[in-house]
Amino acid sequence: HTCHGTCMFCLEKTLPHWFHYSRALSGAEAVNALRPFYFAVHPDFFGQHPREREVNENSLKRLSVYLENLQKPGFKSLKPTQLTFYVRETDQNSDGQEPLTTSGFRAVKFTLHTRDLLSTVLYILNSCSLSIDHIQSLNTNAHSQPLKESTRMPDRPIKWDKSYYSFTGFKDPEEDLEQASRMETSLTSWLDNNGKSAVTKLNNSLPLRKELDRLKDELSDLLQLSDIRWQRGWGIAHRCSQLHSLGRLAQQNLEPLQNAKGCTIIFTDRSGMSAVGHVMLGTTDVHHHWMKLFERLPSYFDLQRKQTALEDQISSLLGGIQVVYIEELQPVLTLEEYYSLLNVFYNQLLKNRVPFHPQSLRGLQMILNSDRYAPSLHELGHFNIPVLCDPASLRWFMRTKAHQARENLKRKEELKVIENELIQASTKKFSLAKLYKEPSISSKQMVDCCKRLLEQSLPYLHGMHLCVSRFYSVMQDGDLCIPWNWKNGEAMK
């Protein structure tokens, strides 16, 4: 708490006097106040920088969970949440405090341990060196405007200043839309323009790729790991140096590292164990942190066993449904964060026990969500269940949707088979070295993409690494990223 106190003290020194007297901020006002921050970190503006884009994507998910929880009656105090953002350089925040990367954005790291929305908003803006002047006006307006005025919808579309478009990169609707659609990139024209540079980058990366495979196999054998993965698209050179670091650690003191036997190691933002039991090595952490983590693994395995037991207890209270954690669809949580969510949910169920017919939901799946208020059924067949959920309405929802859930799960399995067949067919047809997709791309989108690719003749793709994503880019090691819903030259008017 001293850390939190000091932090708030620094904040109070830098903030105007109205900070002390302000009333509580509503959720909508918080989002509004954070608008400059969202413009500076939104993943859509990082198309050419997949690594930074994914850091921001993960941090935004975790921030939204934090903000939601702050507004919930059931959560009295929140765990400190460490976030890393790449902030795009703008006139407003270029005071040069953090070192600027060559690509024009700064890496900003901060830990949230705030108690209310206003202090959270101010702390985030301050941490990113963004102005807080607009909050003062928001605060004073809130008192002076009658409620009727402030909730009235504007009677004309909002007209943004030109600087808004240059800053956010959004299209100005007043610009010639027809021209914009004519200019839309087609797959063949993009490959025409970028194929050569991709081939060069790929060829340059081949020796390093071999080295990466060698290091990965060596370390996996030495530590008896089930896999080594990276949470995002780091370059091959980066990955090699991370494996060299881990190799050096193993040479210095092998014994603690042997605790990871049978585990998957993931290089990511922060160190710890993930909700699914992967060993997370934070790439900005020093070796001392990594070593401590390996030493602590046995206690993490204990917590994992407790987690499994807790999931089984929840399952037996809810008609045999299986509690799962789906990495692609959920915020990246540590084992401790996830265990505490399960615990809150389990205690809710115990307190308001609602009888489920034993095994009536066997074979179905649910994921726990801390940022939702109502249960829902996902198209992939699993239930999305809020942690703070009324058990009686939960029972009614699950019973009425069980048949649909089984249908969706069946469809998901069928889609997976079709997807794998199409990936193989496309890899073969275009003689690709590799065809893969980003985690955020669904099987349905991948199937759609591959079906359309197979109708094309694309000689450029021979021997390439192709990634199906949401945007066009050539990665630093020559991987080609194309959007799943790419446009075809002929179809464009």
Distance between the termini: 62 Å
Instruction: Specify the biggest β-sheet.
Output: 4 strands, mixed
Radius of gyration: 25 Å
List low-pLDDT spans.
1-22, 91-98, 139-157, 175-182
Approximate helicity band: 40-55%
Mean pLDDT: 81
Which overall shape is indicated by the principal axes computed on the Cα atoms?
A: globular
Number of strands: 14
How many DSSP H or I helices? 16
Q: Could you give the order of strands across the largest sheet?
A: 3-4-6-5
Write the element-wise H/E pattern from the N-terminal end onward: HHHHEEHHHHHHEHHEEEHEHEEEHEHEEE
Strand content: 5-15%
Secondary-structure content class: alpha/beta
Descriptive report:
This is T cell activation inhibitor, mitochondrial. Pfam families: DUF4460, DUF4461. Residues 185-487 form the DUF4461 domain. Residues 22-130 form the DUF4460 domain. This protein is of the alpha/beta class. Helix content is 50%, strand content 12%. It has 16 helices and 14 strands. It has helices at residues 2-14, 27-33, 35-41, 50-70, 117-127, 133-144, 147-151, 162-168, 177-183, 187-223, 236-252, 254-257, 287-317, 335-351, 391-429, 443-454; strands at 81-88, 105-112, 227-230, 264-268, 272-273, 279-282, 322-323, 365-369, 376-377, 383-386, 434-437, 465-469, 473-474, 480-483. The strands form four sheets. The chain has a four-stranded mixed beta sheet, covered by helices on one side. The longest helix is centred in the last third of the chain and has 39 residues, at 391-429. The termini are far apart.
